[in-house]
Fold this sequence. Notes:
Layout lengths: L37 E6 L12 E6 L1 H8 L13 H4 L4
Antiparallel strand pairs: 1-2
Amino acid sequence: MRITKEEKVLTIITTDIICNKCGKSCHDIDGVNYEGVIEHELCGGWGSKVIGDGYQHQFSLCETCFMELSKTFVIPSLTHVPLKIYRDVKR
Length: 91
């Protein structure tokens, strides 16, 4: 015989992702997806004097802010071209 009890479970859901740089929503134009959003967690390594030893940073960037930031890179980021089937789609 099972003895049961009722429990309410709290579920945390994401309702939006906000770009840390511009402060805008990272939803796509339909307000459905988060296409192109970059979420990153960074932890200062052992003895880090810049970030801080063990300090953790978490941030989100929208596509526009990422592209602006990437233009400041001395060494460009690697860019991979989509599969051929996607390259042939007219935009």
